[in-house]
Amino acid sequence: MNVKDEEKIDREIEKLPSGIAISWGLRKQPQRGPKRELSIDQIVEAAIDIADKEGLAALSMSRLASSLGFTPMSLYRYIPSKDDLLLLMQEKVSDINYPNEEVETDWREKMRQYIRICIKVFQNHPWFSDIPITSVPLTPNQLKWVDMALRTTRNLPLNDYEKMSIVLLLSGYARWCGIIMKDMSMAIHTGKSPGEISGLDYSAALKKLVTQERYPDLYPVLMSGAYTEENEDANTIGNDFDFGLERILDGIEHYLLAKEKKE
Question: Where the record puts its DNA-binding region(s) (predicted)?
Answer without folding.
Answer: 60-79
